[in-house]
Inverse folding.
């Protein structure tokens, strides 16, 4: 089946088993590609049926694909080049046989081309099979001396651009009575701020209500505390992004998770979003009570998600 003409950017990722294809696919996904690994070659044209895709595609292909063949793979690359006006790249991840053998020895996995034989036999077969594909490749990355982190950095140099997704920052308010949320990278405690709970008129309201926001913001300690947090994150986030991390989770807690932590979370999220960071917001206690949805929701001016 011919591939319909499309302006979608496509990257075919292949190479010998154990060379780092899965890591490369994950990096491309973090950069905003729709990533599909081990898709049968005959299924690829169907991805272009209908309206043009509004996101790039990363397709992982190796000898385990049920309909893999050398000629079909090379023909697919040519078809994609024609149909995307040249915006199709063949990325080949290379690796020395001795390094591949060591990796298989460490994982004790069977090689897909030597199920009943030793891995070195399968490695030799696969390298020979893939030589014409390597010769056709637009980009060849030798992963023999690269750690997963090094490969990620190399992939960023080739595929990251201004349109790529950057570090995603997830902020969530929570109640200390229910414990610190699982998986957060850092936590800020705002229980020292004036508590609207002790005002009967505000007790049932939340930090999303203007009256509660005004009450908390009337505490003179809030502004410098917010500034300290945002200044620290303004310094840290670029360094964390350079390190290769794609997601950072931050918890902001107060006693009940209803008033002060909600206000502070909104303020910090707004400041970070205005600085250009991708920010999501979650209010765990409000979601638990059904006050806000537990799925994605829209925030003023910026997209956010409530946990």
């Amino acid at each position: 089946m011919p591939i319909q003409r499309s302006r979608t950017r496509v990257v075919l990722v292949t190479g010998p088993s154990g060379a780092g294809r899965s890591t490369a696919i994950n990096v491309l996904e973090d950069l905003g590609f729709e990533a599909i690994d081990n898709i049968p070659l005959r299924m690829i044209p169907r991805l272009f049926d209908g309206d043009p895709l509004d996101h790039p595609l990363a397709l992982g292909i190796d000898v385990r694909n049920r309909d893999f063949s050398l000629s079909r793979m090379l023909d697919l690359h040519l078809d994609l080049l024609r149909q995307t006006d040249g915006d199709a790249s063949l990325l080949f991840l290379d690796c020395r046989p001795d390094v591949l053998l060591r990796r298989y020895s460490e994982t004790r996995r069977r090689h897909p081309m030597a199920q009943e034989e030793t891995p070195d036999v399968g490695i030799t077969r696969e390298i020979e099979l893939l030589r014409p594909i390597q010769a056709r490749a637009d980009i060849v990355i030798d992963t023999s001396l690269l750690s997963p982190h090094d490969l990620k950095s190399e992939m960023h140099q080739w595929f990251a651009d201004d349109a790529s997704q950057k570090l995603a920052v997830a902020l969530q308010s929570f109640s200390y009575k229910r414990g610190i949320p699982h998986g957060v990278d850092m936590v800020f405690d705002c229980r020292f701020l004036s508590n609207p709970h002790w005002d009967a008129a505000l007790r049932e309201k939340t930090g999303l209500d203007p009256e509660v926001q005004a009450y908390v913001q009337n505490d003179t300690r809030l502004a410098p505390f917010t500034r300290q947090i945002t200044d620290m994150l303004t310094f840290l986030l670029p360094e964390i992004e350079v390190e290769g991390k794609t997601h950072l989770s931050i918890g902001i807690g107060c006693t009940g998770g209803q008033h002060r932590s909600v206000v502070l979370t909104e303020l910090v999220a707004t400041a970070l979003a205005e600085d250009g960071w991708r920010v999501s917001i979650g209010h765990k206690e409000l979601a638990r009570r059904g006050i806000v949805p537990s799925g994605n929701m829209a925030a003023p001016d910026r997209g956010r998600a409530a946990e």
